[in-house]
Write a structure and sequence with these properties.
Layout: H1 17-30, H2 35-40, H3 44-61, H4 66-80
């Protein structure tokens, strides 16, 4: 069962240059543009704040040993029901 968001994702053809660049980075990193990113893209400041937050989390996560980091990711995914 696929859950539909209340706010439709912003399609790339309606997105500005910054948003399209962020879509390209996300697509290269994850294989597709994550839906939450495409929904947040409607509000440019929120999109930028979200990107900064993700970058800070990614940098902070490098301080953990890889095995602990993977365990934390798997445990969190299990808790929220994510595959």
């Amino acid at each position: 069962m696929t859950q539909k968001t209340r706010i439709e994702p912003l399609p790339p053809r309606r997105a500005g240059l910054l948003t399209r660049a962020m879509y390209a980075i996300a697509k290269r990193r994850y294989g597709q543009v994550p839906e939450p990113l495409a929904v947040v893209a409607h509000h440019r400041r929120l999109l930028v704040a979200s990107a900064i937050h993700e970058t800070m989390i990614q940098r902070a996560s490098r301080t953990l040993p890889a095995s602990v980091r993977e365990l934390a990711v798997l445990w969190t995914a299990r808790q929220i029901g994510c595959s």
